[in-house]
Amino acid sequence: MPTQHDRTAPPEIANPRRGVIATTFSVLLRHRGALAGVTGRVVGLSGLVGLLLTAVIFALAWPLFTHMRNQVVWYHTYLEDPYLHDGTDLALVALGTLPLFLLLLGIGSAAIQSACSRAVATEARREDSPGRLRPVLAVYVLRALIVWPLPLIVAVVADRYTGYHLDTPLPLERGTWPYILVKYSPLAALFVAVLLRLALTLAPAAAADGLAARAALRRSWSLTWTRAGAARVVALAVPLVVLTAGVLRLVTQVALPLRPLVRGLLEDATGNFFAAYYAGILAPVIVGILVTAAVAVPLTCTAFAALHNHLDRRDALLDA
């Protein structure tokens, strides 16, 4: 006959003393000093590196800004018409350097995720969460390669067949079913990408708990594609996305007075209106991203680490 000890599962597995939300705020409160220190160092260093990258990109793009300025002078002198500059080349430069900023964002997020996972493991009285940076960063890279190529490729193909191109006839006739299907196919691809992203949401926390990158992706998939897992991931992800977007919007709006200040300072220093104009546009956005990262990333990483810990232990109990 089994004893009472045999019939009762360990309290932290069978009957978690806290829910995911309570655990999240308990970890953030109890480890506020350590997590605030890590977040401050990571966000501060990322901000400095990001500003350096931005300065380098502006230096490389300076011939474009100079060309725009010369065009303005030429139009005003010889044509007496306003100059409507074409930002296509600058957009290409931005797209070409975007992976550098995404890599910087991934490294910072991986460092904060590792610290948050260690804090959650300590709260749960576990010692098996090494919080390694390299596997977590590898998860971010692999997850991005899995999730985002599909909508990007579909969007490019759809634009090729349905977008407006000067002096180029459309391959598909407007109003036909093939045209409509191709035109709105990026929405379907984006929906698939969002589902994949949700299914792999717990992978960084799994990697921080000691799994290799591919094993962490598989573990996140198996934990999420259950009735309880999917509902909890969505219930946690939606308010976090809303919070992050709201903080970013609010801080960017508050920082808008930086725009004319930066524009005026840079134009006085360089004499190039276009470089100053784009720098002024970027200034409040950079401030918004840094403040939002400092507020939302620790909360998000801790919440998903707590959810991963909860679902992982629940899955272990069901397998037992």
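^ that was protein a. below is b, sequence first then the tokens
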Amino acid sequence: MSLPLHRLTVPQSLPVPFAVDTFDALGPLSHAPFPHRHTFYEIALVRAGSGTHVVDLAAYPLRPPQLAVVLPGRTHHWQDATGLDGRLVLFGEEFLAGCPRVRELLHLLGRRPCVTLDRAVADEAAGLVAHMRREYADPAAGSLGVLQAYLHILLAKAARLTGPAAPAPVGGQRAELAARFADLVSGPGSGRRAVGAYAAELGVSPGYLGEAVRKATGRSPGELIRQACAVEAMRLLAGTRLSVVQVARELGFADTAYFCRFFRRQTGFTASAFRRAARHDGDAESTTITGSCPSNSDDAAGYGGGRRRHPHEGDPS
């Protein structure tokens, strides 16, 4: 089976889907030991626990206090986690409407998913998340803006710990278009669509899309599509029991031999060698897969417990 895909389903106490609560209150899937991914953003403020947080192809030992940002479409799981304590903040793209800087910070931190916090920042982060929890539990007029403001402060404080800020992106509509394109190609099930198909979805010509993406990233849309396809292949090879033939088909390759050549050209590994390394290499920079994937019925089971229905709803991708 393919990677489980979790969606955000919460009571509509706010204009957009949003949730914040403890791991325990959000249920067992909040710390699932099997590789899965989300259609939404997940921020985990981990205050205690041991084990490893595996995000895509990298394993991060838990050294609380830590802040982890998992972007939509990324695979992750909690490996050998014990005593896990903290809070999760979950929200979809709709939550970020009108907040471009918050979105930039999320993607900045998403490139380094787990940040160890010093004690002062950890205490401040815990206070901000507690404020968010209270606002979420008892929403009033303007609560959405208040939550966005708290999130902005939380991410800005964490970003200061990641080193020098990244160069400011090229501004304007073209930069926004390039960011939307990057989200589309990295999302679950993006497959091997042509540049023209993405351009049509974004409502622009292929030429304009190419110009915008090159100016913002220095790379062509085709290069980014091929890179995203290779990353998706690595996720499926490392995190599922799909055969190489099935992975090729999942990604839209009719010819498995062509897929194998593509994968080796993009990564330097054969598909089989990469799978063996991903499953058996204990290096901290490689994904180590443990635990069993859930059955379809388990994946869709209530991500519940606590006072609310759990906001993750399993759905096989």
